[in-house]
Amino acid sequence: QVQLVESGGGLVQAGDSVRLSCVASGRTFSSFGMGWFRQAPGKEREFIARISGIGYSTYYAESVKGRFTISRDNAKNTVYLQMNSLKPEDTAVYYCAARPLTESEYAYWGQGTQVTVSS
User: Fold this and answer.
1) pLDDT tens track of the chain, all 119 residues?
2) What is the Cα Rg of the chain in Å?
3) What pLDDT does residue 86 have?
4) Measuring CA to CA, which residue among 70, 72, 83 is closest to residue 116?
5) Which residue, 119, 101, 102, 117, is CA-closest to 38?
6) Are 31 and 1 in contact (CB under 8 A)?
7) Which of 3, 26, 53, 66 is the residue whose CA sits 20 to 30 A from 98?
8) Which residues contact 17 (CB under 8 A, 6 or more apart)?
9) How far is CA 25 from CA 35, 43, 54, 60, 68, in A?
10) N-term to C-term CA, the chain
11) Whole-angstrom distance, CA of residue 71 vs CA of residue 50
């Protein structure tokens, strides 16, 4: 079992930057690939970014490529999402998720943190 707790969301203005954090507990953090997702009101959950277990590999959705950066600190059991040049359309609840490296699906999810970008 893995518990995930996100933090760092809030109300910001367009063009601002925000860093989200997700702290994991319960199992060896490096044995999980980590991902960030978001869900805006009335929309389906959307993949944002993912990072491999030891952080060598990352992948981004086209909608955030060049603006968002995913990283991890395995010594702190934490994955980050640095979000720059925020736009109103980035407004959503942001979730982190953990995928056991032996599996193809994300098995554990955090409770989410709200990011609201005003124009």
Assistant:
1) 899 999 999 999 999 999 999 999 977 999 999 999 999 999 999 999 999 999 899 999 999 999 999 999 999 999 999 999 999 999 999 999 999 989 999 999 999 999 999 99
2) 13
3) 98
4) 83
5) 117
6) no
7) 66
8) 82, 83, 84, 85, 86
9) 16, 29, 16, 25, 24
10) 40
11) 9
Q: 88: how many CB neighbours lie within 10 A of its CB?
A: 11
What CA–CA distances, in Å, run from 53 to 65, 87, 118? 20, 29, 34
Q: Is 83 exposed, middle or buried (0-12, 13-18, 19+ CB in 10 A)?
A: buried
What is the predicted pLDDT for the residue at 27? 75
Question: Cβ contacts of residue 58 below 8 Å, gap of 6+?
Answer: 49, 50, 51, 52, 69, 70
pLDDT confidence of residue 26: 78
CA neighbor of 37 nearest in space, from 11, 1, 68, 74: 68
11 token code pair: 């109300």
**pLDDT recorded at residue 1:** 81
